[in-house]
Automatic annotation (TrEMBL):
PANTHER family: STAGE 0 SPORULATION PROTEIN A HOMOLOG, TRANSCRIPTIONAL REGULATOR-RELATED. Gene3D superfamilies: LytTr DNA-binding domain (2.40.50.1020). It comes from Eilatimonas milleporae. This is LytTr DNA-binding domain-containing protein. It holds the Pfam family LytTR. InterPro entries: LytR-like, LytTR_DNA-bd_dom, LytTR_MHYE. It comes from the Bacteria. Keywords: DNA-binding, Membrane, Transmembrane, Transmembrane helix. GO terms for molecular function: DNA binding; phosphorelay response regulator activity.
Length: 299
């Protein structure tokens, strides 16, 4: 089960999610002070005998409930994909997430108000949980909040992806430039790689593609998959040569360029490559120019 706590979101998720959560917390606190103070001032101007603490309690309960359900959004975004052919599923997932966000917010808000009202207001809090119009009114506001927060998380993740792709591509170019300057061409030697409690010996030509998996790399050959404890950058360095056969197409993927049979651009500015085996791999936006150069025959 995913951990839907805000503290967990702030401490253990990616840097982009932490920045997004910080922005949302800041905006939520500002919203609380603006709305609560405005309602309190309106109540004083109306001279309706409203308890001056009531707007502050009501808005505090609402905004605390919003912060409590915010972690639903990064968890949801980590489970849906907007790839071509899956957009309908993604939109359905977002719609379901919006409903869960609103229901969670309303139930928590009402629960907090029911706890606070007897202490500070001297009576019970009445909401009307079984009135569909009350739910519709709350859902309208929650949907607006949900869309804004999805936009914040998606934007920070998108910028983080662009930054990571750019850094990986720059590092790759620097490594290739250094190798070309100081290393003569040499025949490829078999690689000795630790996989579990054994050592596998692979010729570089056997490696069709590889995928980063945290501190491991999945190395795919024509007949097997080997899970090796090293990083994708380390593997690429081991495979490197003045004219490398294997190229990075994504911060998480490396592929033998001889295996690429088709490159397909996508609408979001990215691309995919199809291999002889039928496997389709993503191409990072920052890696597209390098991939095009690697696949262009020398004049």
């Amino acid at each position: 089960m995913p951990d839907f706590s805000l503290a967990r979101t702030l401490s253990d998720r990616t840097l982009s999610d932490r920045w997004a959560a910080l922005v949302i917390v800041t905006v939520t606190l500002l919203s609380f002070f603006v709305l609560a103070s405005s309602e309190a001032q309106d109540a004083r101007a109306a001279s309706a005998g409203t308890n001056p603490i009531e707007p502050w309690l009501a808005q505090a309960a609402s905004h605390i409930a919003i912060l409590a359900v915010v972690p639903i959004i990064p968890a949801l975004l980590s489970r849906i994909r907007f790839d071509r052919g899956r957009r309908v599923h993604a939109l359905c997932g977002l719609a379901l997430g919006c409903v869960l966000f609103s229901v969670g917010h309303v139930l928590l808000m009402v629960g907090i108000r029911k706890l606070l009202w007897p202490w500070f207001m001297g009576g019970a809090y009445v909401f009307g949980l079984f009135d569909p119009f009350v739910w519709l009114y709350e859902f309208r506001k929650d949907a607006y909040t949900f869309v804004l927060q999805v936009g914040v998380f998606w934007s920070f993740r998108h910028f983080e992806t662009l930054r990571a792709d750019g850094e990986a591509l720059r590092a790759q170019i620097v490594r290739q430039t250094v190798r070309q300057a100081v290393q003569p061409a040499a025949p490829a030697l078999p690689l000795s790689l630790k996989s579990g409690g054994r050592t596998v010996h692979l010729d570089p030509d056997e490696i069709l593609w590889a995928k980063s998996a945290s501190n491991y790399v999945e190395i795919h050959t024509g007949s097997a998959m080997h899970l090796v404890r090293l990083t994708l950058t380390e593997l690429h360095d081991m495979l490197g040569a003045p004219d490398p056969c294997h190229i990075r197409i994504h911060r998480s993927y490396l592929v033998s360029r001889r295996e690429i049979v088709e490159t397909v651009p996508t609408r979001d500015g990215r691309a995919t490559v199809k291999l002889r085996s039928g496997v389709t791999l993503p191409v990072g936006r920052a890696f597209r120019p390098h991939l095009a150069a690697a696949l262009t025959p020398d004049p």
